[in-house]
Amino acid sequence: MIDPIVAPDPQAGVGEQHCDEIIDRIDFKEIPTKVAYSLTPFGRSLAKALGPLCQWGTDHMLTVERISEHRTTALAQPQYSRNG
């Protein structure tokens, strides 16, 4: 049996990034809750490393879209049917 897909909690990713030392979280211990987030030096180095990858994606967006569309079309063909 496959487990049902559950929408992720948006805060769950923040917690993981905090544990991974990518972001700092400051809890001001106020009501209503007040927290602040910032990148750690490690997080800033990751952002710097991802910059070129993001630029590559932007530069090649049309090619990636064309390839993705071609793949989707090919998978819809009968020879790729999961029942066949």
Largest sheet, in brief, is: 2 strands, antiparallel
Outline, from the CA principal axes?
elongated
What's the SSE pattern?
Answer: HEEHH
Number of strands: 2
Number of helices: 3
Strand content: 5-15%
Name the strands of the widest sheet in spatial order: 1-2
User: How many distinct domains?
Assistant: 2
User: Uncertain spans, ≥5 residues at pLDDT below 50?
Assistant: 1-8
Radius of gyration: 21 Å
SS class? mainly alpha
- Straight-line distance between termini: 22 Å
Q: What does the average pLDDT come to?
A: 81
What is the helix content? 40-55%
Structural commentary:
The chain is mostly helical and 84 residues long. It contains 3 helices and 2 strands, in the order H-E-E-H-H. The protein has helices at residues 10-19, 41-59, 61-75, and strands at 23-27, 35-39. It has a two-stranded antiparallel sheet. The longest helix has 19 residues, at 41-59. The radius of gyration is 21 Å and the shape is elongated. The model is unreliable at 1-8 (pLDDT under 50).
Topology:
Blueprint: H1 10-19, E1 23-27, E2 35-39, H2 41-59, H3 61-75
Antiparallel strand pairs: 1-2
Keywords, separated by commas or semicolons:
mainly alpha, elongated, 12% strand, 2 domains, two-stranded antiparallel ribbon, 84 residues
Q: What would you say about this model in short?
A:
This protein has 84 residues and is mostly helical.
